[in-house]
Design goal:
Distance between the termini: 49 Å
Protein name: TerB family tellurite resistance protein
Helix content: 55-70%
InterPro entries: TerB-like
Shape: globular
Number of helices: 7
Strand content: under 5%
C-alpha cells in the first residue's frame, strides 16, 4: 500500500467516524426528521461517504469508531465546518440551531453555554469569516 493510499484510507475512516457520530446525535431522540435527513445527505456528500456506506452507517452508527476532537481548537474546527454547512444550505430552517446545539454538546462544549456558542458561531459564519478568524474569535469571545 502506498503512502497516499494509506493517507486516503485513514482520511476516509476518519470521515466515516465523524459522520457516524453526527448520525448518533441525530438519532438521539429516536427519530431522524426530514430536515435532519437533508442535512445528513449534504454532509455525507461533503465527507465523501458513498451511498452504501451512508445506509450502513444509518442502520448501525455504532459500527464506526468516533474520532473525537481532542483539543479545543479541533472542536472549534469541526464546529466551523458544521456551522458553515448548516448556514449555507439552510436545510434545517427552524431546527438548524437545535441540531447545532446537539452536535456542539456532543463535540464537548458545555451545555450551559452552548446557546451563546452557537449564536456566536452563526454570527461569524454569517460574516463569512475564514477558519482562522472563526477560531480566534471563538477562543476570545469572553474578553
Amino acid at each position: 500500500m502506498s503512502f497516499s493510499e494509506l493517507f486516503d484510507s485513514e482520511f476516509k475512516q476518519r470521515n466515516k467516524g465523524h459522520f457516524s457520530a453526527i448520525v448518533r446525535v441525530a438519532l438521539a431522540d429516536g427519530v431522524v426528521y426530514p430536515e435532519e435527513k437533508a442535512f445528513l445527505d449534504k454532509l455525507a456528500a461533503r465527507l465523501e461517504i458513498t451511498e452504501s456506506e451512508y445506509e450502513e452507517i444509518l442502520s448501525d452508527p455504532l459500527k464506526y469508531p468516533i474520532n473525537p476532537p481532542y483539543s479545543y481548537v479541533q472542536r472549534l474546527e469541526r464546529l466551523y465546518d458544521l456551522t458553515r454547512m448548516v448556514h449555507v444550505d439552510h436545510h434545517l430552517e427552524d431546527k438548524q440551531e437545535v441540531l447545532l446545539k446537539k452536535i456542539s454538546v456532543a463535540l464537548g462544549f458545555t451545555p450551559s453555554n452552548v446557546d451563546y456558542i452557537i449564536a456566536k458561531a452563526l454570527s461569524l459564519v454569517d460574516k463569512k469569516v475564514d477558519a482562522d478568524t472563526f477560531i480566534y474569535e471563538m477562543q476570545h469571545m469572553h474578553k
